[in-house]
Design a protein that fits this description.
The chain has helices spanning about 20-25, 55-70; strands at about 1-10, 40-50, 75-80. With about 90 residues, it is of the alpha+beta class.
Length: about 90
């Protein structure tokens, strides 16, 4: 079966996010003073060939832990959905 994964990787809440801070502090300069607390991360999509949903989720978790996220400084979350074939 083919599955689609959607992964979000964000800096840990306790860590400084310089890129997010810069964007947040400049919101007032672009006419959006009501926006604050910007955090910037990564969004990754990928396809997985696996026997079932649980196996696909484990492969995504393994990819995040080994390569996609720096778990010392980042946290990740993901969703995995089966791809419908016609």
């Amino acid at each position: 079966m083919t599955f689609h994964a959607s992964i979000d990787i964000m800096p840990l809440p306790a860590l400084l996010d310089p890129q997010g801070k810069a964007v947040s502090s400049n919101m007032k300069h672009v006419g959006l003073p009501e926006i604050s607390g910007v955090r910037i991360g990564k969004h990754i999509t990928l396809s997985i060939e696996a026997a079932d949903q649980a196996t696909a989720e484990e492969k995504v978790r393994e990819a995040c832990e080994k390569l996609l996220a720096n778990t010392i400084m980042e946290q990740y979350s993901f969703t995995v959905t089966a791809v419908e074939t016609a």
